[in-house]
Amino acid sequence: GPQSTERGLDKQQNLDAARNDPAGHHLTTDQGVRVAQTDDSLRAGDRGPTLLEDFHAREKITRFDHERIPERVVHARGAGAYGRFRVYESMADVTRADFLQDPELETPVFVRFSTVAGSRGSADTVRDVRGFATKFYTRQGNYDLVGNNFPVFFIQDGIKFPDFVHSVKPEPNNEMPQAASAHDTFWDFVSLQPEAMHTVMWLMSDRAIPRSYRMMQGFGVHTFRFVNAAGQGTFVKFHWRPLLGVHSLVWDEAQKCAGKDPDFNRRDLWTAIENGQYPEWELGVQLVSEDDEHAFDFDLLDATKIIPEEQVPVRPIGRMVLDRNPDNFFAETEQIAFHTANVVPGIDFTNDPLLQARNFSYLDTQLIRLGGPNFAQLPVNRPVARVTNNQRDGYGQQDIHVGQANYTPNSLNPGGCPVTASPDAGAFVHYTETVSGRTIRERSPSFQDFYSQATLFWNSMADWEREHIVAAFRFELGKCEHRHVRERAVDRINEIDHDLAVAVARGIGVDEPTAATTNHGRSSPALSMANLAGDSVR
Ligand code: HEM
After folding, report:
1. What is the C-alpha to C-alpha distance for residues 223 and 233, in angstroms, rounded to an integer?
2. Greater model confidence, 518 or 274
3. How many Cβ atoms from other residues are within 10 Å of residue 277's Cβ?
4. Is the peptide bond before 409 cis (omega within 30 degrees of 0)?
5. Residue 198 and residue 449: Cα distance in Å, rounded?
6. At what angle do helices 463-477 and 483-496 cross, to 10 degrees?
7. How many helices, marked H, and strands, marked E, lie in the chain?
8. Cα(74) to centroid of ligand 1, in Å?
9. What b-and-e string marks burial along 500-537, b requiring 16 or more CB atoms within 10 Å of the CB?
């Protein structure tokens, strides 16, 4: 059963079996044979050839040759830590998620922060989105909240993700540049795919150069669904708020840090935890009843939109503290596998087409990245909940499954086969949503407003924040060599705000646009992103 202490579940105890501390032990081969000499290979004669029978030398070099695995296809560079989460009060009215019922229960977590575009060895302080992925090791199985530090995303449908990432990654002919938003392919794509413009505004803002992972918000981005014991659903958006406040670098600092200490954000997280300055986040939720699904002037299933906090306030529901660095970067931070489809009873999906694609993509990529189907058995991924099923074999199988029969139903194993559970016994049951309609590919008309919230974001900025945004557009777009792409990007910015577009145009050598004729201002002018843009400081 689940491993627990009086404080709650103990993931550390669960990891102990895998810890390998060399202190006080002899050097051995992988077979446990003690090694007498590891500095010279076995040779025939003083100056003769190396002998094949030197199994230690061969094993040592072979193991070295196989040390690398593919880096993540996105979010390759990151840093992570263990911690704990505790809910403030029972959330039973909206969700039956076990880890959200009892304020006395501590749930262990692992969080990985990351940049998106750069490769594993790239610098921390680049202009980019940051990943904020949390694995909750709950009594009812692992729940992964795989979020970012922006509340919105560049595309509405996951089928565009390969295109988007190809445009963001270094260009295919010469693998330049590392910087995600400073090249032609990025601006070409986002200006042709204007649903990206809201998130582009966030990317050009100070939010894209966080001073510290400890000072970043996190967002689930999609609208998810809470489900309570009665089977009733409630839409939910997740927010992490750092107790240290939201702080950014300025661009000049970011560039200097990238040169002088490419590990700037990593080191900050590691050192704070080593020094006992444990970073904390409050988990908040925006809850929307199913009756209000269509009460907004945007679609809740559209991941390029926020729900303004004036319309739905964020309710704080719990707190997370990160208090333990990993022992081994590769084993833990690199091999952890997050997946949006890792949900527990009480948390379910919506039909957000970006989320639906993610629910396919993560497991698929991990099957290749982590070398086969058994990566859930790796120490960092292993649930504290008991795992019992008839899934078998495969590369890297760690479990010794006992019994004659591995199918269901069966009557041959003593005690019978593992039995399915009722929802009362903690079984996951998919939400019984009613769906209807024809099979179509056309994007829903409710997804067609690309600019209102980009304008809302711009209107919510203080003067100094606007100056930073203009400077960022000029710097990044200024690296774009194709004039027609720069012009098209300015046209898109002009749909957001004319003054902004003029200011950008002046800095990148294209003609100033005339005022846009379309009026996208569908959102109420009373709304702002003040809460969200909140306590960000200079
Ligand atoms: C990795 C967030 C959209 C595919 C990640 C990671 C985060 C993240 C935080 C890093 C996980 C880690 O630390 O190991 C998001 C968010 C999205 C989004 C917030 C939009 C709201 C997508 C989409 C797809 C996708 C649409 C594909 C259709 C991937 C893949 C990885 C990844 C393949 C690498 C996973 C691995 O190798 O373990 N994403 N992502 N993501 N994401 Fe996303």
Report:
1. 12
2. 274
3. 11
4. yes
5. 10
6. 160
7. 13, 12
8. 7
9. bbbbbbeebebeebeebeeeeeebeeebbbeebbeebe
pLDDT in tens, 42-98: 999 999 999 999 999 999 999 999 999 999 999 999 999 999 999 999 999 999 999
Which residue's alpha carbon is at the smallest distance from atom 38 of ligand 1? 337
Q: Which residues lie with the beta carbon below 6 Å from any ligand 1 atom? A: 72-75, 78, 112, 114, 131, 133, 146-148, 153, 158, 161, 221-222, 303, 336-338, 354, 357-358, 361-362, 365-366, 369
Instruction: Determine the angle formed by the axes of helices 498-508 and 463-477, rounding to 10 degrees.
Output: 40
Name the 3-class secondary structure at 127: coil
Q: What is the pTM of this model?
A: 0.95
Distances (CA, A) of 506 to 127, 330, 392, 510, 535: 22, 47, 63, 7, 31
DSSP lists the bridge partners of residue 106 as 8
Q: Where are the beta strands (DSSP E) in 157-307?
A: 218-219, 224-227, 233-242, 280-289
Q: Give CA–CA dist 1/130, Å, rounded.
A: 36
- Predicted local distance difference test score (pLDDT) of residue 530: 54
C-alpha 248/C-alpha 188 separation (Å) is 27
Q: Residue 533: is its pLDDT beyond 90?
A: no
Residue type, 284: G
Nearest atom in ligand 1 to the alpha carbon of residue 72 is 37
Residue 494, CB-side half-sphere exposure with 13 Å CA sphere: 18
d(CA 259, CA 94): 48
